[in-house]
Design a protein that fits this description.
By secondary structure, the chain is an all-alpha fold. It is built from seven helices and no strands.
C-alpha cells in the first residue's frame, strides 16, 4: 500500500467521522437551558450541556482532513478551485475550533465556576464578562460561516471537474456553500426576505443533506485509495 493510498484511507475515515459528528450535533440530546442566569451558570458541570462543544471542537478537524485528502485528487484537474476552497475551509476549521475553545475553557472552566464561587460584590463583574462572550462567539461565527460557505462553494466546483460520482458530491457541496453564504447574508446583512428560506433550509434540509454528502465523500475517498494501493513500477 502506497503512502498516498494510506492517507486517502485516513481521509475517508475522517469524512465518515465528520458525518457521525454532524449527526450527533444535529440530532443528539441537549440539556435544557434554564431561564435564570444563575441556574444557567451551573451548566458548566453538566455533561449533557458541554459534550457538543467538544464534538464541535473536533468536528472541523475531521472534515478538514477529509477535504485535504480530496484536494490531493482534485488539484490536478482544478488547481485554482481546490487551493481557494482549501484556504477558506481552513479559515472555517480554525475559527470554529477557536469558538468552541472559548466555550469549553473560558466559559465553562473559568468564568462560570468563578461567578458561582464569587461573593455578591464580585458577581457583577463576572456576569459582565460572561454576557460579553456572546459578542465574541457571534463574531467568530461571522467568520466561520463565511469561510465555510465560500470554501464549500468553491471546493464543490473543483469536484465538478471530475467525473461521475464526484460531480454529484460537487454539486451538493456547492449548494451547501451557497446556502451558507445566503444565511451569512440574512444573519449579518439584514436581508429579511431570506429568513423563511434559511429557516426551512436548516430546519428540514441541511442536516440530512450534509450527513449524506460527508458519507458520500468518505466512499469516494475510499474508492480513490484503491487506485493507489500498488506502488508505481520502477
Amino acid at each position: 500500500m502506497t503512502a498516498k493510498s494510506q492517507y486517502l484511507i485516513i481521509s475517508a475515515m475522517c469524512a465518515i467521522f465528520s458525518a457521525l459528528t454532524t449527526t450527533i450535533l444535529m440530532y443528539g440530546p441537549s440539556a435544557a437551558i434554564p431561564e435564570a442566569f444563575e441556574a444557567t451558570q451551573a451548566l458548566h458541570s453538566n455533561t449533557l450541556h458541554t459534550y457538543k462543544n467538544w464534538i464541535l471542537f473536533f468536528h472541523p478537524q475531521f472534515a478538514f482532513i477529509a477535504a485535504l485528502g480530496a484536494a490531493a485528487i482534485l488539484y490536478n484537474k482544478a488547481p485554482a478551485y481546490t487551493a481557494i476552497g482549501i484556504l477558506y475551509l481552513a479559515v472555517w476549521a480554525l475559527t470554529e475550533m477557536t469558538q468552541q475553545a472559548y466555550l469549553i475553557d473560558a466559559l465553562n472552566q473559568i468564568w462560570r465556576p468563578a461567578y458561582l464561587a464569587a461573593d455578591a460584590a464580585d458577581k457583577a463583574q463576572w456576569r459582565t464578562i460572561i454576557e460579553g462572550l456572546v459578542g465574541i462567539t457571534d463574531t467568530l461565527y461571522f467568520v466561520l460561516i463565511y469561510g465555510f460557505g465560500l470554501g464549500s462553494l468553491v471546493f464543490g466546483l473543483a469536484f465538478l471537474k471530475q467525473g461521475g460520482f464526484a460531480q454529484a458530491i460537487g454539486a451538493l457541496t456547492s449548494l451547501i456553500g451557497f446556502m451558507s453564504l445566503a444565511a451569512f447574508t440574512y444573519y449579518y446583512a439584514g436581508v429579511a426576505p431570506l429568513g423563511s428560506i434559511i429557516n426551512g433550509w436548516y430546519g428540514w434540509i441541511y442536516g440530512p443533506l450534509q450527513i449524506g454528502v460527508r458519507l458520500a465523500l468518505g466512499i469516494w475517498l475510499w474508492r480513490q485509495a484503491t487506485l493507489y494501493k500498488r506502488p508505481d513500477p520502477l
